[in-house]
Amino acid sequence: MKNLLKYLFVLSFVIVGCSDSDDQVTETEDGVVFNPLQANPAPLPRDCDSSSPLVGVTRPLRISNLYGISGLVTIVSDCEIEISNFFYNGAGPNISVYAGIDNDFVNGVNMSEPINGQVFESATLNLFLPDGASFNEFNSISIWCYEFDVDFSSASFQ
After folding, report:
1. Comparing 93 with 122, which gets the higher pLDDT?
2. Can you tell me the distance from the alpha carbon of 12 to that of 1, in angstroms, rounded to the nearest whole number?
3. Residue 12, pLDDT score
4. Cα-based distances in Å from 83 to 16, 21, 26
5. pLDDT confidence of 137, banded at 50, 70, 90?
6. Which of 21, 28, 92, 116 has its CA 20 to 30 A from that of 69?
7. What values do phi and psi take at 11, rounded to 5?
8. Does the structure show a pLDDT above 50 at 82?
9. Which of left, alpha, beta for 122 (phi over 0: left; psi -120 to 50: alpha)?
10. How far is CA 86 from CA 69, 105, 107, in A?
């Protein structure tokens, strides 16, 4: 029973904690809006090599019943992934797709625009690593709550 209460407490923190918040948004003197709770901008599509041994490998996202997350992640090239048959119920804004090393997403890189509570049903997403990064370095993908550093679902290519 004690473990169940701990689990419910942590779960409530994640659900409440990963909510949309604009209270830290500021505007600089030159009119640039800055929100430290937002992910870095998504990298633009680009061509890149296919030298990584991970190219062509597919792994399932860990199923998350709470967030309705599932899908298949395929490494298309050294800088591109495809998430196919992607489901996400939209709960918990401040979510993006991140790449990490050995499931470390705190120090990972953003690959998508914020999902911002959108619902995905059997969607296909093609996403890119930032310039200069490749899947020779990164080996895991996460549906990541970047406000509170919470992995909602992930796939490892280790």
Report:
1. 122
2. 16
3. 44
4. 27, 27, 33
5. very high
6. 21
7. -60, -45
8. yes
9. left
10. 7, 20, 24
What is the reported pLDDT for 2? 58
Sign of the dihedral through C-alpha 10, 7, 93, 78: positive
Beta bridge partners of 82: 74, 126
Vertex 68: Cα angle to 158 and 123 (nearest 5): 75
Exposed, middle or buried, 65 (CB in 10 Å: 0-12/13-18/19+)?
exposed
The residue behind tokens 């992930």 is 154
Residue 3 has pLDDT above 60, yes or no: no
Amino acid at 114: P
Q: What phi, psi does 142 have (nearest 5°)? A: -135, 145
Q: CB-based burial of residue 67 (10 Å sphere; 0-12 exposed, 13-18 middle, 19+ buried)?
A: buried
Q: What is the pLDDT of residues 39-60, one digit of tens each?
A: 678 899 999 999 999 999 999 9
Distance CA 73, CA 81 (A): 7
Strands (DSSP E) along 32-149, which ranges? 33-34, 58-60, 70-75, 80-88, 95-101, 104-110, 120-128, 140-145
Which residues are CB-contacts of 90 (< 8 A; sequence separation ≥ 6)? 115, 117, 118, 119, 120
CA 29 to each of CA 23, 32, 34, 43: distance values in angstroms, whole numbers, following the listed order: 18, 7, 11, 26
